[in-house]
């Protein structure tokens, strides 16, 4: 039904308009009393073989919703009904910001990919907390945090610490995002010394809490081997809990979409099918070079169970989806879980 009817209708709209349209209808339909049990039943699929414990948290299944879809925690309860094992909100910043000018989200159907230059558009961390206080589901929530565009890099740590402090009682783990290509100079924070200093301060603040939460780092797929070696060293040295690999890529060399069309779109990070190979390579490198010293959440180009299995075999403990759901529909989550259960049951 999604591919035959809903997707063609959504793809007639501007990509960001379609996103907001989908949001509003999910909010309406998923909360209709008569439809709630039907929706839950349709998307529900759990199997004990899917359960796993990672960085001290117990996940009912390893398939999560990546950051970016529900930045402001507006659809936690509704998205939980699709069968995710966890949901990551954000990227959130201390102060609300509009993000980059429109248009800023584009589809590349020939590549089953997206280009976005959203620019951390969000209502601010305090607004997200207001919603999190009201959520009904107990699904595991990750808080993806960043800095405001107007905050200079030498004061970036203050933004991350504010988000950590504000969100701490309401999320189960944190993700330090320094890898978006859409905030000017943000990726400079991935350099060895700035990153080490940032993570050290975030970890120190977290450790002072009565109940510290896992801290993860989200990295770009465009890092060199030397930079990935630095990431391993920094993760080990700062003793954070894991890595999310990867964010969107600025590499457009393998796109099937016409070069003129891509140039006309302009700047932005690419996600979706085009990212699958590189994100898996990064996962494999981190896992093998670190001797599996820390958990990795694999994200990038997951459209089906085989894609998820590739990430797990490369060394990921959990996976996340986003762009694949735009092309395959919400039933993709259940399909991936069934395929994973069959695969894991044979191990």
TrEMBL record:
Record key words, sorted: Cell membrane, Flavoprotein, FMN, Membrane, Oxidoreductase, Pyrimidine biosynthesis
Annotated binding of substrate, by residue: 71, 116-120, 177, 182, 247-248
Coiled-coil region list: none
InterPro entries with a match to the protein in the record: Aldolase_TIM (IPR013785), DHO_dehydrogenase (IPR050074), Dihydroorotate_DH_1_2 (IPR012135), Dihydroorotate_DH_2 (IPR005719), Dihydroorotate_DH_cat (IPR005720), Dihydroorotate_DH_CS (IPR001295)
Domain of life: Bacteria
Cofactor requirement: FMN
Catalysis: reaction(s): (S)-dihydroorotate + a quinone = orotate + a quinol
Transmembrane segments: none
SUPFAM superfamilies, per database record: FMN-linked oxidoreductases
Alphabetical list of Pfam families matching this protein: DHO_dh
The family this protein is said to belong to: Belongs to the dihydroorotate dehydrogenase family. Type 2 subfamily.
Name of this protein: Dihydroorotate dehydrogenase (quinone)
Source organism of the structure: Shivajiella indica
